[in-house]
């Protein structure tokens, strides 16, 4: 039970960090904005990131953790699950707009989420060993 609590707390921490990273990432890829436009984009993307990260990314990450916990290539499977769900989500969104993109900015967010989670996991295991 303690392990589940630790994993859940790590996932929540990663989610909170990504809520702040996502708007900054979006501002970086939209570099031709005025200051007032940047503030507006930041507020909108921050609000959207809160919803997206907690209602979609966090459950996907918990699912990836559960499915890959006893697999030999755990990191690879977890990576694939994060990216596959990103591709599925953004393909669905883009299809509604009339276009399909396999590679999209959302994939980088999924990769950053996965990488940050793996880094926190590494730090957590390193602390437990010492």
Structural summary, described in words:
The structure is a single chain. The chain has 130 residues and is mainly α. It contains 4 helices and no strands. It has helices at residues 2-29, 35-68, 74-96, 105-129. The longest helix has 34 residues, at 35-68.
Summary tags:
130 residues, mainly alpha, 4 helices, 85% helix
Total number of strands = 0
Which structural class matches the secondary elements?
mainly alpha
The biggest sheet amounts to:
none
Tally of DSSP helical segments: 4
- Cα-atom radius of gyration: 16 Å
What fraction strand? under 5%
Q: Taking all residues together, what is the mean pLDDT?
A: 86
Q: How do the SSEs run, as a string of H and E?
A: HHHH
Cα-to-Cα separation, first versus last residue: 22 Å
Low-confidence stretches: none
Query: In one word, what is the shape?
Result: globular
């Amino acid at each position: 039970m303690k392990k589940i609590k630790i994993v859940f707390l790590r996932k929540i921490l990663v989610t909170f960090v990504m809520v702040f990273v996502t708007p900054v990432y979006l501002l970086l890829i939209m570099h031709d904005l005025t200051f007032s436009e940047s503030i507006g984009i930041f507020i909108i993307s921050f609000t959207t990131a809160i919803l997206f990260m907690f209602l979609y990314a966090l459950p996907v990450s918990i699912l990836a953790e559960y499915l890959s916990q006893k697999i030999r290539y755990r990191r690879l499977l977890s990576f694939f699950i994060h990216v596959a769900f990103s591709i599925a989500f953004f393909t669905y969104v883009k299809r509604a707009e009339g276009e399909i993109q396999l590679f999209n900015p959302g994939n980088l967010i999924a990769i950053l989420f996965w990488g940050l989670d793996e880094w926190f996991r590494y730090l957590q295991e390193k602390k437990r060993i010492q």
